[in-house]
């Protein structure tokens, strides 16, 4: 039995692109805070610490600083008497804090303090005036502190200093103005970013490096404030802030220093970057005032994977000021927001990355949303609404578009069953190979989770699945139709089939489910945005959509073909249909569009 595919018009809609929409889910950390979080840090035991302008955390009194143990917020003693702007941990349950405060736990600390696990203590006499905004390289007997000060521990130090466990020392003649951010690399170098234009008495525009004995600029620096720095462990320093140029290059609020020159990260952001952090995989996360990243909608937070930016769900409702990853690469964000991913999260939230559901379905331009597209068998025309129009293939070909090159957007492709020809079209990439034949149904997908689609077919005469260069198994019978999906959320397509005669769904090595009847068309997709495929069907006789364990609704009817897809880029499939007689495409709550011709055939790939 063949699936619901036919040579003809292809509607290409579906789940998130793992390259252009980061897979994961937002959650609140208890009831959060009563106002802004400005800084975050994780310790060696996995505890999270937050500092800011708040006076309650999780509904408990916590003056400007608090700890999260994975389930509850708690105060750190009686906290501070004013704002905490930076925290840095060492070991388990111990940290340093800097900010605008003059007392910590009732002890005079003057803008910088140490929490030893049970009480606060001063670091010498602290700062004589103004404040500490940045901390780095925290150890039991070591700390760098930056901010806006001229004296610390009774020692003259221009805006930056080092604590050795017993006393403060200056770093040469220091920096010419306020320090907003600090970062260290694995070689003992310290990087500082801020509002200064000199370092050690020499020109250094907003960013500089300390090698242990002297300061040096990083190229020609920036044209405005640096507010955040992050080191990725692979030799790259990232900077974010108010600047639009770095090293004379247009970078738009975020840039990378590779040790010798600055470069942009795509087209950058449309507004200030206030926070940066890197995970263990080398991904960079940015937070701030921006609402686009790399030209893609990204509300105040985004991920850079080395080649492109992607949003984290629908982002946050307002500015992100702080970011940190824990040892499991979970991301924590703090700021001025009250929702994250549409979930109520007061000023702090957690993003748990999840494996993507394979290559993007129907995302031809790599923007993380599904595109409308048609294939016209009469002349081989592919038309992607708002993107492209290309002649490729003929009436004897079955469209099999996927992301075959792993660039985060779909390639045009077809399978000619008469001779087993696969042909994939790409600007810098193409495939022409013979694989399978007239008895086979194309079933391409990312079966090994490497981010690129594999050529594959299902032979219903004997239940053979063959994935080119990967595996061959027998699974299913002539009664069965292959269905596409990542049902366990591990980032790869599963071998699975649907038996319409009795509503059987069977996913190899994972599960067996009875859901639906012979009247129903299977339409699996990620409807709840949890990065795993849900069992779902559409009953055209009455327009019923039913998603197992989630929802059911009526939308469309007998003249309509279901077209679920992620039209709004929020990580979850939306309900939609196409009415061929009227050329009408309708997505529930989002859009209504006329596109294509009535004699075009539709394929709701990959079902």
Instruction: State the helical fraction.
Output: under 10%
Annotation, overall tally of beta strands:
65
Low confidence ranges: 1-21, 355-360
**What is the residue-mean pLDDT, rounded to a whole number?**
90
General shape: elongated
Task: Explain this structure.
It contains no helices and 65 strands. With 607 residues, the chain is mainly β. Among the domains are: 30-170, YVTN repeat-like/Quinoprotein amine dehydrogenase (Methylamine Dehydrogenase, Chain H), CATH 2.130.10; 373-594, Neuraminidase. The strands form 20 sheets. Strands 1-42-39-38 form a 4-stranded antiparallel beta sheet, with no helix packed on it. Strands 2-3-6-7 form a 4-stranded antiparallel beta sheet, with no helix packed on it. The model is unreliable at 1-21 and 355-360 (pLDDT under 50).
Question: In summary, what is this structure?
Answer:
The chain has 607 residues and is mostly beta strands. It is 0% helix and 41% strand. It starts with 23 loop residues before the first strand and ends in a 13-residue tail after the last strand.
Structure characteristics:
607 residues, mainly beta, Methylamine Dehydrogenase, Chain H, Neuraminidase, four-stranded antiparallel beta sheet, 65 strands, elongated, disordered N terminus
Give the SSE map:
Layout: E1 24-28, E2 37-42, E3 48-52, E4 56-57, E5 60-61, E6 65-68, E7 73-75, E8 84-89, E9 95-99, E10 103-104, E11 107-108, E12 112-115, E13 120-122, E14 131-139, E15 142-148, E16 151-152, E17 155-156, E18 160-163, E19 168-170, E20 179-184, E21 190-194, E22 198-199, E23 202-203, E24 207-210, E25 215-217, E26 226-231, E27 237-241, E28 245-246, E29 249-250, E30 254-257, E31 262-264, E32 273-278, E33 284-288, E34 292-293, E35 296-297, E36 301-304, E37 309-311, E38 320-325, E39 331-335, E40 339-340, E41 343-344, E42 348-353, E43 373-376, E44 381-384, E45 388-391, E46 398-399, E47 412-416, E48 421-425, E49 431-434, E50 440-442, E51 456-459, E52 464-467, E53 471-474, E54 480-482, E55 496-499, E56 504-507, E57 511-514, E58 521-522, E59 536-539, E60 544-547, E61 551-554, E62 560-562, E63 576-579, E64 584-587, E65 591-594
Antiparallel strand pairs: 1-42, 2-3, 3-6, 4-5, 6-7, 8-9, 9-12, 10-11, 12-13, 14-15, 15-18, 16-17, 18-19, 20-21, 21-24, 22-23, 24-25, 26-27, 27-30, 28-29, 30-31, 32-33, 33-36, 34-35, 36-37, 38-39, 39-42, 40-41, 43-44, 44-45, 46-47, 47-48, 48-49, 50-51, 51-52, 52-53, 54-55, 55-56, 56-57, 58-59, ...
């Amino acid at each position: 039995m063949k699936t619901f595919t036919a040579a003809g018009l292809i509607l290409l809609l579906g789940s998130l692109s793992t390259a252009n929409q980061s897979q994961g889910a937002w959650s609140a950390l208890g009831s959060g805070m009563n106002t802004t979080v400005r800084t975050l840090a994780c310790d060696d035991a996995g505890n999270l610490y937050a500092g800011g302008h708040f006076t309650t955390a999780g509904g408990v009194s916590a003056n400007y600083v608090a700890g999260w143990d994975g389930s509850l917020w708690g105060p750190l003693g009686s906290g501070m008497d004013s704002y905490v702007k930076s925290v840095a941990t060492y070991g388990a349950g111990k940290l340093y804090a800097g900010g605008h405060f003059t007392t910590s736990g009732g002890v005079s600390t003057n803008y910088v303090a140490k929490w030893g696990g049970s009480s606060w203590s001063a670091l010498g006499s602290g700062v004589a005036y103004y404040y500490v905004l940045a901390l780095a390289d925290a150890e039991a007997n070591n700390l760098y502190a930056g901010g806006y000060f001229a004296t610390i521990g009774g020692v003259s130090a221009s805006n930056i200093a080092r604590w050795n466990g017993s006393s403060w020392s200056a770093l040469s003649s220091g920096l010419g103005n306020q320090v907003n951010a600090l970062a260290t690399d694995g070689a003992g170098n310290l990087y500082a970013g801020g509002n200064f234009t000199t370092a050690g008495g020499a020109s250094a525009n907003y960013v500089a490096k300390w090698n242990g004995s002297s300061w040096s600029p990083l190229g020609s620096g920036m044209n405005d404030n640096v507010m955040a720095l992050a080191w990725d462990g692979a030799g790259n320093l990232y900077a974010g802030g108010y600047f639009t140029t770095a090293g004379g290059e247009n970078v738009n609020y975020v840039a990378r220093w590779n040790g010798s020159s600055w470069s942009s990260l795509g087209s950058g952001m449309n507004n200030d970057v206030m926070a940066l952090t890197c995970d263990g995989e080398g991904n960079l996360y940015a937070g701030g005032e921006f609402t686009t990243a790399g030209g893609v909608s990204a509300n105040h937070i985004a991920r850079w994977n080395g080649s492109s930016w992607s949003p984290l769900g629908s982002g946050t409702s307002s500015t992100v000021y702080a970011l940190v990853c824990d040892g499991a690469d979970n991301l924590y964000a703090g700021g001025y927001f009250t929702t994250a991913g549409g979930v109520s999260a007061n000023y702090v939230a957690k993003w748990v990355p999840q494996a993507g559901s394979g290559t993007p379905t129907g995302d031809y331009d790599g923007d993380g949303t599904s595109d409308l597209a048609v294939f016209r068998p009469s002349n081989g025309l592919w038309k992607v609404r708002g993107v492209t129009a290309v002649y490729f293939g003929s009436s004897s070909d079955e469209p099999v578009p996927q992301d075959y090159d792993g660039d985060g957007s779909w390639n045009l492709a077809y399978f000619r069953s008469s001779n087993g020809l696969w042909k994939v079209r790409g600007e810098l990439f193409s495939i022409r190979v013979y694989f399978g034949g007239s008895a086979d149904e194309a079933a391409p997908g990312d079966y090994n989770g490497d981010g690129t689609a594999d050529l594959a077919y299902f032979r219903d005469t004997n239940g053979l699945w063959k994935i080119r260069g990967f595996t061959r198994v027998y699974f299913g019978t002539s009664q069965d139709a292959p269905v596409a999906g990542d049902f366990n959320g591990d980032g790869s397509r599963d071998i699975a089939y649907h038996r319409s005669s009795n509503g059987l769904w069977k996913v190899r090595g994972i599960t067996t489910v009875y859901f639906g009847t012979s009247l129903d068309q299977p339409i699996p997709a990620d409807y709840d945005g949890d990065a795993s495929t849900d069992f779902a069907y559409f009953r055209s006789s009455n327009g019923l959509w039913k998603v197992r364990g989630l929802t059911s609704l009526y939308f469309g009817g007998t003249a309509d073909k279901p077209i679920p897809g992620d039209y709004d880029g929020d990580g979850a499939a939306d309900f939609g249909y196409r009415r061929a007689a009227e050329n009408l495409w309708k997505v529930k709550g989002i859009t209504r569009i006329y596109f294509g011709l009535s004699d075009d055939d539709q394929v709701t790939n990959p079902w």
